[in-house]
Every structure is written in structure tokens, then in C-alpha cells.
Amino acid sequence: MPSPLTVTFVQATALNAIANILAQLIDQRNNKGPFTLNGLAFIQFIIYGIISVPPNFYWQRALEARYPGFPSRAEYANAFSVRSLKSIFSPRAWFSSTDDALPSHTDKVKEKDARWAPRAQMSGLRCLGMKLLIDQTVTSIANIILFVAAINLLKGESLAKVWELVVLDFVPIMGARLKYRPIVSLLMYTVIPVDRRVVFGSACGVIWGVYLSLYAVV
């Protein structure tokens, strides 16, 4: 039986291939002649997918191991309850006494021990929030840099030119990613098993793959 990585690898590669073909169809829509596949651009995009799937697969596993699970219904209800909102804006929360503000020796010991406690002890709501935050920042930044660098290196650009293109293209690509990624991430971290997240992201991101493919063809 194939491993989860192998299944993810094959499925994500197939979705990337579909996205690239769709992108080339869109790019050549004004041509009156028959559609001609740009084989070089197709291969370059597939190679990029092959490079990007394994690190993303293991990154999602590591992220889930550090911040496991997702909020229960009770946590959602408690987080948005009137009582919780009142506690946030309570004067006691902002103007506590000096004794409350200064932790005791026992509190310091507990705090020190808590730093080494398993992440499973964190609330599901906090784990979800951390995964969403990391996905929109660290994961997005790393994947955009990887994409621009890999595609342009495959095109034969020098390292200096590749870095220039990373700086030039980062902001518009990040802007386009933020238009769809938060919704995908919310679904991914609440209902999708960890080993299926890369494929789910690829499936939801076929349109995103078209966008990246159009960039790669240029």
C-alpha cells in the first residue's frame, strides 16, 4: 500500500498538471489556430510541484504536532459568549492590583514547567489560531519564494536575477494568495486530516495554480 506522502505526491502533481494546461488554454485563447501545449513550461511547472510537495507535506505534519486539534463546539460557544466578552473589557482585567500583577514563586515554577508541557494541552481555539496565523505568514512567504526561485532557476536565470524577481513579484503574488488562502486554511485546519491537506490545498487551488502557471509561462 502506498505511503501517505506517495498518494499526496501523485494527486498534487496531477492537479498541478491540470492547472498548467488550463493556464495555457487561457493564455492562448486569443490565438485563432489550434491549441499548442508549451511542453517546456508544462515540465517546469511539474518540476516545481515535485519540489514543493514533500516539504509542504512534512511541514503540515509538524504544524499539527505542535498545535494539534481544532476547537470544539463548547470552545466556540464559550469564546463568543457574553460572559467571555465582558471579561475582556472588565476593568479588573486591565487594572489588576499589584499583588495580582506580581507572580509568586509558585506561579513562576508553574510557568517554567508549562513551557515544556505538551502542546496537546493548549485549547483547540488557540491551536487553530496559531495554525491560521502561521499559514498566512511563514508558510505563504516560504512557498512564494520557493515558487519564484524554482521557476526562474528552471528557466536558466542567474541567482542575482532570481532574487531580483523574488523582490519584484513577492507583493503581487502574496496579495493574490491572500484573496483565497484564508478560507482554504480555515477549512483545512478544521475538517481535513493532516495527510490530506496538501492535496486539499492543491484541489482548492487549481485556480491559484492557473495563476501561478500564467506567471510561469511569461
UniProtKB/TrEMBL annotation:
User: Which PANTHER family does the protein's record reference?
Assistant: PEROXISOMAL MEMBRANE PROTEIN 2 (PTHR11266:SF80), PEROXISOMAL MEMBRANE PROTEIN 2, PXMP2 MPV17 (PTHR11266)
Q: Which domain of life is it from?
A: Eukaryota
Q: Which organism is it from?
A: Penicillium olsonii
Keyword terms of this UniProt record: Membrane, Transmembrane, Transmembrane helix
Q: Does the keyword 4Fe-4S apply?
A: no
Q: Which Pfam families match?
A: Mpv17_PMP22
Which residue spans traverse the membrane? Answer: 39-59, 132-154, 198-217
* Name the UniProt record assigns to this protein: Uncharacterized protein
Give GO cellular component annotations, separated by semicolons. Answer: peroxisomal membrane
- Which protein family is it in? Belongs to the peroxisomal membrane protein PXMP2/4 family.
- Compartments it resides in: Membrane
Q: Which InterPro entries match?
A: Mpv17_PMP22
Bilayer topology term = Multi-pass membrane protein
